[in-house]
Backbone:
């Protein structure tokens, strides 16, 4: 199994261990996602895993067209996600857990059975299946944190953050372009792992901006879960503020 797919399995397992012991009331605890309880977060993950399966199996354009018709009033990806959850909210939590678990397992099976260099369609455009897998690691990590926070579980940082931070670094040009902005030049991330090791993400050409600090904080900023000003992240160069405002790990 490819290391990226192995990391996805590990991230799914972390979330599954939390969900497996929740009482019915805890499924309805509010989360950091405004207006969503734990059940809504898991429903969203199930829905987006199913979308990722359609991407990896070449069916995403049809799914996207159907969703565009059904969710035509939404003007952004976030609004579409909210409408998708609203449309299916309220199903029994046992069914919801089963749906997420089976979809997560099927996604792993599909990814494990394909060439991860294959180009596939996704919300942000065309990307490799390996990058698609990494986006699923990132989103599952984000929402595992949302669930853990809602039910009082503390999650420890893992080496999976290395993949998530790299995704955030590699997609900076996309983040800037989506905001109608242009970077002054390539950026670098110089991060220090939970074990104190350097995790450096360096461009091929001379960098104009460098962001430094813990990957946990960088990934949390990219997930829109903390404000950059409340972290120990530092930067040098003309794009520091814009990078910290725009960096993200999801589309």
Residues:
């Amino acid at each position: 199994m490819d290391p990226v797919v192995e990391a996805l399995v590990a991230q799914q397992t972390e979330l599954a261990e939390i969900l497996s012991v929740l009482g019915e009331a805890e499924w309805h605890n509010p989360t950091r996602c405004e207006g969503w309880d734990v059940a809504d977060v898991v429903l969203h993950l199930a829905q987006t895993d199913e979308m990722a399966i359609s991407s990896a199996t070449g069916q995403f354009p049809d799914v996207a067209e159907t969703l565009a018709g059904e969710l035509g009033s939404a003007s952004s990806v976030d609004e579409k996600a909210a409408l998708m959850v609203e449309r299916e909210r309220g199903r029994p939590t046992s069914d919801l857990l089963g749906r997420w678990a089976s979809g997560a397992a099927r996604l792993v099976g599909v990814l494990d059975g394909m060439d991860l260099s294959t180009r596939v369609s996704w919300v942000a455009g065309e990307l490799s299946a390996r990058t698609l897998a990494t986006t699923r690691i990132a989103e599952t990590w984000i929402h595992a944190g949302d669930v853990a926070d809602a039910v009082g579980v503390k999650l420890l940082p893992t080496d999976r953050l290395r993949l998530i931070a790299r995704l955030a670094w590699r997609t900076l040009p996309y983040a800037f372009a989506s905001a109608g902005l242009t970077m002054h030049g390539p950026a670098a991330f110089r991060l220090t792992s939970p074990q104190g090791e350097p995790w450096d993400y360096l461009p091929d050409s001379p960098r104009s901006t460098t962001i430094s600090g813990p990957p946990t904080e960088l990934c949390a900023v990219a997930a829109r879960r903390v404000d950059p000003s409340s972290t120990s992240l530092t930067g040098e160069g003309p794009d520091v503020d814009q990078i910290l405002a725009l960096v993200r790990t999801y589309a």
